[in-house]
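Morning. Coffee machine broken again, so started the prediction first thing and wrote up yesterday's gels while waiting. Chain of 190 residues, entered below exactly as on the submission form.
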Amino acid sequence: MRILYDPSPRATEDMFSASAKEKFFSTYDVIAWNGEDRDDFYRRHLPDTEVLISQQPMERDRLDLASKLRAIVNVETNFLPNIDYEACFQRGVHVIAPSSVFAAPVAEMAVGMALSLARGIHSSHGDFLKGEELYGLDGNHMAELLAGSDVGFVGFGDLGRATHKFLAGFNPTVRASIPGCPRACWRVSA
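Came back before lunch.
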C-alpha cells in the first residue's frame, strides 16, 4: 500500500511512538514529504498514492491526479474546507480523522468551560479586573451547580464519551441524541 505522508502542521513525534513509527515506515510503502516544493511533491506522488495522511488542500485538481486514492486521513481532525468532499464522496475516497487522539484534551476543555459557564468564572474574573467584583450572594445569584445537572450531547462519539467520563464525578443526568438510535436510548446515565 502506497501512503503519501505529509503530517504538517503535526510532527511525526506527536503522532507516533518510536516503535509505532518504525512499524509504520517498515510495514507500508511510505513516501514522506521532507520540506521540498510541496506542489511538485504532490504532482509526482499522488498518481500512485492509495492513502494520504495530511492536512494539505485536496481540491479537485489534486484529486484528479490521485486515481488510486482510497482514503485521506485528516491529521488535524478539523475537516477544513480545503478538501473537495463532494468529489471524494463521488469517487469513494474516505476522509477520516483520528478523533480519539484529541478526545481527552478537548473533553477536559469542555468540562472546564461548562464549569466556568455554570459558576460565572470568566465573567467574575472580568469584573475583578475592572474592580467591579461582587461577593457572597450578590456575586453568585446567576451561578448554577454542574453537580446533579442535566447535560445533553448531540451525538456520542469519541468526544462525547470522553466528556461523559470527566463529568461522572458531578453525577449529572446525561442524555445524548444519537443518530439512528430510538429516543428511548437517549438517556446515557442517571
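The mean pLDDT is 88. Going to sketch it on the whiteboard this afternoon.
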